[in-house]
Amino acid sequence: MELLMRRAGLHGLPGNRARRRPRLQTPSVADLVERNFTRHARDQLWVTDITEHPTMEGKVYCAVVLDVFARRVVGWSIDASPTAALTTHALSMAIGNRHPQPGGTIIHSDHGVQGEFNRSSQHL
Question: Strands 58-67 and 106-110: what pairing?
Answer without folding.
Answer: unpaired
